[in-house]
Amino acid sequence: MSNHLLQSNTQAILLLCASFGQKRDTEPKPLTLGEYNSLAGWLLEQEMTPGDLLNSTHKNKLLSATIGKLDSNRLVALLERGMMLSLAMEKWTNQGLWILGRSDSQYPKCLKQKLQHSAPAILYGVGNIELLTQGGLAIVGSRDVDEDAINYTNKVVQNCAAQGIQVVSGGARGIDQVSMLGALEFGGTAVGVLADSLSKAAVAGKYRPGIKEGRLTLISPYDPDSGFDVGNAMGRNKYIYALSDRALIVSSSFDQGGTWAGAIEALKKNIVPVFVRLEGNIPEGNKQLILNGAKPFEPTPHTSSLPTENPTEEVETPHTSSSLPTENPTEEVAGKLDKPKDIIYELVLPVLLEYLEQPLDEKSLAEYLDIQVGQMQKWLKRAVEEGKVIKTKNPVRYCLKHSAKQLLAKLEAKTE
Amino acid sequence: MVQAEKKQALFLLRQALQNPLADFREGQWEAISTLIKYKSRLLVVQRTGWGKSLVYFLATRLLRNQGAGPTLLISPLLALMRNQIAAAELIGVKAATINSSNTEDWEIVKSELLAGKIDILLISPERLANDDFRDTILLPISQRIGLFVIDEAHCISDWGHDFRPDYRRIVRILQALPSNIPALATTATANNRVVDDIKTQLGSNLEVSRGHLVRESLQLQNIQLPSPAARMAWLAQHLPNISGSGIIYTLTVRDAERVANWLKTQGINAQAYHSELENEKRQTLEDQLLNNFIKALVATTALGMGFDKPDLGFVIHYQRPGSVVHYYQQVGRAGRAVEQAYGILLSGNEDEEITNYFIQSAFPPEADTQQVLNALTCADNGLSVPQLEQQLNLARGKIDQVLKLLSLESPAPVTKQGSKWYATPVHYQPDTEKIEQLTSIRYQEQAQMAEYMQSQQCLMAFLAKALDDFNPVPCGKCAVCLGKPLLPETCSSELVNEAIKYLRRSDQVIEPRKQWASQAFPTYGFSGNMKNDLRAEAGRALCLWGDAGWGQLVKQGKYQHNHFDDALVQATFEMIQRWQPQPFPTWVTCVPSLNRRALVPNFAQRLADKLGLPFVPVVRKVRQNKPQKTMSNSYQQAHNLDGVFVIDSWQGMKGAVFLVDDFVDSRWTFTVIAALLRRGGSGAVFPLALALNSLDGG
């Protein structure tokens, strides 16, 4: 694996936005996400990709352009930082770190879909990239916690591990680490979205074995060598939510601290359904979050192999590890009783949709996925019924419904 | 447009060379043009003196004129050669160097570079390995680099004769470099395999510019002289008859020192040059050779790449190098801007043993690598090198070698953060097959060099062919083409005898240790800096273990006869006369052994008799420990001696004393016993050994 060989698009995004271990106020100042978004908009108008900026003719175009309030000399100066990029890349990637730009195919789609313009332009990470698309339960809470909260968290992560539900958290002291390390201990997988010091965390004894086994992935939108910063810690909360299917707040203070702010943000922006612990020693913040739209969390899942105390409420609990992007997340909060075949269908659907960006017949599609043609027909039929896919005749082909395709294109356009 | 640029470049070239009639050599303008116009990735393979540096100076000037940032040049050279700097300055290209010997200038260079006052910055490949340097100096100044140049690019090829691990990092940096920055790699020596390997590593869009290698004024001759004394005598006799100044290459640092000192005793102005000298000293020596102030530098390969003296009169090899490419690279320094220059290869009996040692120690054994990796994997928060020494019975040098090679793997299973090493979460599988392949290539190269030694065809053509030069023709001026020696193959037996005597006077100083190994002596309670009144004095060893002088006789005494010959007693006595330690000892004692109870005391007794001093064996060994030679690093060697010896007292104790042993390696035995003697009331302690182990003397 050659992590240091980046796509030219990713190179350009890094040149524009990364600080490469320097202070962010060093001249030329790297673009903020907002500034980058306005440049991305201009690129789209010009029918250019970020990588085109590395080409000298296109560079001249940049010099004569007016892009929002951006100073084009600053952009040119940023793009001249190629040597800096390659030195930093060599250092980071040689420790096993990887870098994803928003244009990379492996960049987690859920971030773009759920956060749109707030999806970070760059992600630094270490570990199994595939975990980023597996959704899961976000578990967050304050740094200082009591035994109740710790026991509770351990119970939840043990259940998650047993059911193959991934844990997503922030790697901070307290609930974050308890949940991530717990998930690993019980044999599950975990994703940590760090606010600082990714290079240090990557070699810490507590994380190293999990990363090596492919069960733990750490990512950060911030420079791998950057130290702690309150703003960054707040800023990364939404990524924890966006990478998950549902979120559980174990403990939050009221109207202060990162956990509270993050939960309120997630509720306001409807990033994912938010649940709160209402057991044991309940902090004031937890109760207040209920008033703000969060739901009580029932830690015991409905799976028959595990005892349940209150089966009637099972519909409210998170119970799949599906990372289905839903256009309307609130629908899930309302809850619907999924039969296994529905679960499977929903898991398969995004894969089908991705293939069907190009028109295909059912036989080739079945071959691609190594599935019986009969089964494929059933799924396609349902997708057609749901209006997600259209079927053409002579020859018979399936493809994304035009509107769906446009929607995807629009989403892409917004983020690039 | 192109014509205008070329015209301007030609103008600059003539300015740089101070020659209004100068013109580009074949390929020079093309190289410059492709860099500035197409931001290409280019490999230039041309012999030393062709003008590779002019390519990057002119390209730098032209790019700077277009508003580009300065050039970053990675080179193993200590500094640009003075004539190169002068040429650069003539076209307004200001060069600066950052290396380990000018730390006080770093901040100034940094700010000047950021202010645009420096046009080309030279740094060594090893600097890139230093994280602190990368973070605090290199990264900040790299925000506006306009051209990336890698000198001595053959070091990139791990198939090459001169692979340097640090170049692995440079390859990755070059691979990661965005296409809007042009890059140039240059070398004077690369055969097809090396060029292909560089291409594979740097990508198929690498363009290659390659020229002829043959040196027209260089005359080659090979002479077989088995014994070191004969070769030293040959040098002393014939060097004065060769005109001009030159270089004598040896395979080891010790040989460089020894040959240089021998030539000095023979009234020849020669100086040793090797990696153990300070950078400043090395630059002074280079200057002295450049200006013909000395007859010869006796050098290891440390005097190598990029050294550019157009009027070098000769290159003589005291021993046979490990490969033809090595040899060509070194001998090719001679005969560039002079009518006639000699390339003489002397070859002796020890050559193969030395090159074998280099080949065998190039890679650490897999078990060592595994031990280091295991220790780091078990550590939660990393380990420093001293901590690794405490946990592992591996030599410091071995630990460093393992860590260095591992940290250069891609991706690396270990990484250094601050002063500690950490295991990374990377899956690592050592490529043993590749190591075997490389080792076998090294042996093939060694065999080819032996073949060259015996060659019955034109020697220059042999070298050119081995380097894949196209269409080599007989040179007509080497010893084979001429059918007679250029220089006599013999030397006077008187000089040979003198050289033998010189070799037998190769006393070695045993420097005293000044610091206790941390946490190694809980029983004796030794720690921290050694107090003056516990330290040993500087001692002496008669010879190097297994060496050409007395070394063989010591070896026989220890392992065959279990008795040291009287000749060694006499030689040691003579050494003491030369040495005259002050205050002169009044008694003799020795290091005890439980395995060979008589060997050393017997020798010490005879030496004491000869000196007319009493021999009093006051040091007793009270505990059997593991053999000291199985202890591999300083901590283990020191710790193995804790509580092992006690000192008996006697009335004459307070005088100075000779402390005798047969063999000295880590010096810990001498150090510990000296401290115990001093603590027991003795006077100054002078360590005295028959042989000094020198295997790590490279």
Automatic annotation (TrEMBL), chain B:
Protein name according to UniProt: DNA 3'-5' helicase
GO molecular function: 3'-5' DNA helicase activity; ATP binding; DNA binding; four-way junction helicase activity; hydrolase activity
PANTHER family in the record: ATP-DEPENDENT DNA HELICASE Q1, DNA HELICASE RECQ FAMILY MEMBER
Domain Helicase C-terminal: 234-377
NCBIfam families with a match to the protein in the record: recQ_fam (TIGR00614)
CDD domains per UniProt: PRTases_typeI
Domain Helicase ATP-binding: 33-208
InterPro entries (alphabetical): DEAD/DEAH_box_helicase_dom, DNA/RNA_helicase_DEAH_CS, DNA_helicase_ATP-dep_RecQ, Helicase_ATP-bd, Helicase_C-like, P-loop_NTPase, PRTase-like, PRTase_dom
Catalytic activities: Couples ATP hydrolysis with the unwinding of duplex DNA by translocating in the 3'-5' direction
Example of a GO biological process term: DNA recombination
Cited SMART domains: DEXDc, HELICc
GO CC annotations, alphabetized: bacterial nucleoid; cytoplasm; replisome
Record keyword Phosphoprotein present: no
Listed Pfam families: DEAD, Helicase_C
Coiled-coil annotated spans: none
Keywords for this protein: ATP-binding, DNA-binding, Helicase, Hydrolase, Isomerase, Nucleotide-binding
UniProt organism field: Gomphosphaeria aponina SAG 52.96 = DSM 107014
Enzyme Commission numbers on file: 5.6.2.4
The protein's enzyme class: isomerase
Highest taxon above the source species: Bacteria
Family the UniProt entry places it in: Belongs to the helicase family. RecQ subfamily.
